[in-house]
Amino acid sequence: MITAEFTVEPFIEGSPGPHVKAAVQIAENAGLTVEIGPFGSSVTGDESVILPLISSMLSAAVENGATRISLQVNQI
């Protein structure tokens, strides 16, 4: 199992912007639950599911206006 924590900028006050929602949607479409926090989001699952999704999540965020993405992956 691994956890991927990601922060997608720019921050939009009040709610996640389309760049955040796009990344989250990729994970949710794969059947994963995303925990959305005020400064970042995280998803936990089997590495065989999470690792291939990371590229798609990052691409979706950039395509929807992300100017910076921070990613941290931890094995648990």
What class, by secondary structure content?
alpha+beta
Low-confidence stretches: none
Listing every helix as H and every strand as E from the N terminus to the C terminus, the arrangement reads: EHEEHE
How does the overall form come out from the CA principal axes? Answer: globular
Please state the CA-atom Rg, rounded to the nearest Å: 11 Å
Q: In percent, how helical is the residue content?
A: 25-40%
Mean pLDDT metric: 93
Beta percentage is: 25-35%
The main sheet comes to: 4 strands, antiparallel
Biggest β-sheet: strands ordered side by side in the sheet = 2-3-1-4
Count the helices. How many? 2
First-to-last CA distance: 6 Å
What is the strand tally?
A: 4
Concise synopsis of the structure shown:
This protein has 76 residues and is α+β, with helices and mostly antiparallel strands. The protein has two helices and four strands.
